[in-house]
């Protein structure tokens, strides 16, 4: 499988820890974490302000990647800092640097190989941090996306939901000759009925009758590594497993060239959510997509995943928008209504569907669509009590030229004026 875009560089060598909690805000290797038949490495990132009974997100790298590359090349650490969850990064030691999603052992509950090692990592994190066992999630890219499908099939009793970026259905990559690669599946020529795909998942854990994890899948229409037909097969599989209709309950366009379909529900936590990216290849992951996965998981509020908004903090935001046929300019003013200065700020907001940021000023911007974090410039980092800063951006739109409806300053919701 192709590695992720070269822009995703490696992090510095991580620290090491053998027992107990790991150092905060540092990618740390953990050894001796439990059963590990395929000799995976385990790395953990725990934010400085980890939540009581935190959620756990397992982030699985692509073929040829590593835990360090997944850590440095995605925004999951910054999201953990903001929302207090624990990150677990499995890392392959075999020469291919690909996860085993093919062997008979990998495709059954407690059968062996990589899934067993990853389950042990989750158990370690749960024990060590008193994690909420109802909020264990997994996400991955390419080989990691395939492993996301496998883990949801093998361990429906462990994971609450998954988000797979450029993957294939559970069992599609199966081989019996020891090969890690299945050309027919990669080429998009393996098709089954929804019932057949669902039966593959159910057979992985015979006798299991409990709830099944929700699934979010992403795929580019021009993927030449794991061909686009796999996207539709994933949708067939997980709608069947979750017992919902293959007819979308909702369809929208959250960004230019994206088509999002939701099955079995219309909200952010529908049983199955599928995002198709027109004209995009295998390396589809871009900054901001993890925030959308976080929303699907239900971890985008500091509320234990309940979806309620935190109380308004000592801040007020006013936003004025000037629109034209396909574009807009927004001016956002943030006022410190508290009694203490704000020294360094991050303003979080979500662009309305169809808007794509093209330019910004008086702040650095983390993403072009969806969830955006605007970070102070050097010259406006301090906001004195009663004082304000103004930032702005330009964006294109596909019909919705409104301002964001909610803003948070350093994690606290602001009053919107």
Automatic annotation (TrEMBL):
A Pfam entry, by short name: Esterase_PHB
Superkingdom field: Bacteria
Signal peptide: 1-17
Domain CBM2: 308-417
Keyword Signal on entry: yes
UniProt KW keywords: Carbohydrate metabolism, Hydrolase, Polysaccharide degradation, Signal
Alphabetical list of PANTHER family matching this protein: FERULOYL ESTERASE, UNNAMED PRODUCT-RELATED
Name of the protein in its database record: PHB depolymerase family esterase
Organism listed in the record: Streptomyces achromogenes
